[in-house]
Amino acid sequence: MADLMQFHFYRFLRRATSGYLVALSFWAAVCAETPPNIVVIMSDDQGRWALGSYDARIHTPNLDFLGQTGVRFDQAISPVPVCSAARASFFTGKMPSQHGVHDFLSEDFADPDGWLNSETLLSEELQEAGYRVGLFGKWHADTAGWRPVRGFDRWLSYDEREAPWINQYLHAGTVHFSRDGEAESFTGVQAHFLSENAVDFIDESGEHPFAVFLNFVEPHFPFEDLPERLVSQYRPVAQDIVAAGGFSSIARPAMAGAVVDNHSEQLAQYLAAVTLLDEQVGRIMDALSGRGLIDNTLIIYTSDHGHLTGQYGLYGKGNGSVPQNLYQESINIPLIIRGPASWVLPGQVRDEFVTLCDVHSTLLHVASGEPRESVGPGESLIPLLQGMRMPTWRQYQFAEYGNARMVHNGRWKLVTRYMPDGKAEESWFDLAHPLKERFATPPPSEAQQFDLQAARDAFFRKYESAATTGRRIWDLPKHNAMERWR
After folding, report:
1. Where are the beta strands (DSSP E) in 335-454?
2. What is the pLDDT of residue 112?
3. How far apart are CA 38 and CA 334, in angstroms?
């Protein structure tokens, strides 16, 4: 039956004359009768570089298999290189200058919660489409994360009422959770606990399609207490994967100075966390396979943003430097999607410029059976997943962080910082330079400068609000006590 459906679909494509949206509408009608289940696995602070597909010394066999039987996107980025803002963008489909979360949100900071009260969340849209929706692990797109968020039928996140914020990041030990608002503690390796609860939710879903958001805290700091059986694999090779040292024209904050003293151990722990996540991916795939669900489940693996683990001598993400950075290592993320044959043509490696906002749009497309008009810059990835050739796909990547904005075309990168007096400071980077982004470079030709400046301005005119724009970050509520632009 599936082969016959594919035959008719490709025959339709050959005859279609009105573009890929017509093809998508046809194929969506074919798929609408059996909406796929959804499993989104999101790591925390995982740079794209920290994946076996890009470095064979990093052990991620399950993720490698996921890519081989699905689609790997090699040019995926986060719209902002910091946790709360990136997760807010994922769940709203909007840029920070639209939804107003520009930095990480401190649970113990004085500002009020309710940052996303005026936004429609992905969870609400999926629930309305008939999905049973569960979140397991990190939320952090708002404060008061112990409180269940609208649109979720099951909520297992962290309880800041019971312990300070660092407790949620413990890879092993006793971690305090909130299960649907009720306090609960677990002692052990918390990644295992989250996976088990996600599988339990799948079993409870019955005839309803399920949407699981499995949000691990690995490989986020602290870089310690990962299983020794995994860390021991990386100690001999850590220095070869990312050597200690490095420099750039951006300063490292004083509090990060001690990290370099133990670079190899820190990196070995970080990579062990990646392999621990890989094991959870295998656990989830086995659970789906054993229940006969994997052929009708869309599985997405990604991260909230990238991470510097010694590159340029920095540790962290966009806030790992002073001022904040938009380095490629901070914004580049892994993105692998595997799914039913009706939605995904396996074995592809795509080089198109894509972002977390596109994943948001893709999930809405899958849930509704047709492309949806986006509230932000996201585009459905379904045509790419189905193997279509897309020469009109976007030519630029965009990101922002506070008062800083970035645009690049794969070669030339422009970072603009807007100052309190309204002036703009521009820095140019040649991504093909052997020193990468250690120093700003002379700008490209005037024509290329104009193209990137015009692309930046057009994009943010469309995807910003006067009340929440990062250009006026000093007029917005503070997110934490350590904002890099204050």
Report:
1. 335-338, 348-350, 354-355, 397-401, 404-408, 412-418, 424-430
2. 67
3. 18
